[in-house]
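A quick aside before the break. I want you to see a complete sequence-to-structure record at least once, exactly as it would be stored in a machine-readable document. Don't worry about memorizing anything.
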Amino acid sequence: WTYDAATGRIRNTTNSATFIGMVSLNAVGDYEFEVGLSSTNGDDDGIGIILAFYKDPITGKEHTLSLQRWLGVTNTGDADIYYDYNYSQRDGYRFRSAGSRKQFGWNAVGETIVAAKRVGNLIHCTVREFSALNPRQPIVDEYTINLESDPRFSVFLGEAKYGYCAQSQQDSTWRSIKWPEGDGRGYYASMK
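That is the input. The structure line, written in tokens, reads:
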């Protein structure tokens, strides 16, 4: 993981076999989180943001709520929201999938902007179309998550950590536009 303070970009060069990410050290309540996602690599896998993160202090199990963009033809929609992605042994599942997947690598589509606004126990997510020229493209999907709608989400009630994630996408890049902590100077730790 690297961070470029001049551009506000976070980058990970790993072509991981598993779901990877880093999360804030601080938990936050209401927030606005807006990030440009891109990669210079021609692979077609996932890049996203962690909407909420919780680590059970007794068992050590990590729980995530994530918004991810995918390319290629391996799955259904290209904008997915997951609970405990890549953790099928813990009832992980995709509960929202929208849009038609682009059959290109990330290096061919430019950047997409994803955003989340949390107010209380509601998280409203928006996803913009890909563009190499102007990332402020039209919104292609919107969805509001009610953290009180599923008992599994109860670990995210109140303040929660946030972060960045990827699955098997080399040279994943996150261009932070709005940070939940305001100035973007929060510190982060890798998920296991």
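Two observations worth writing down. Residues 149 and 156 are 12 Å apart (CA to CA). The chain has a mean pLDDT of 84. We'll return to this after the break.
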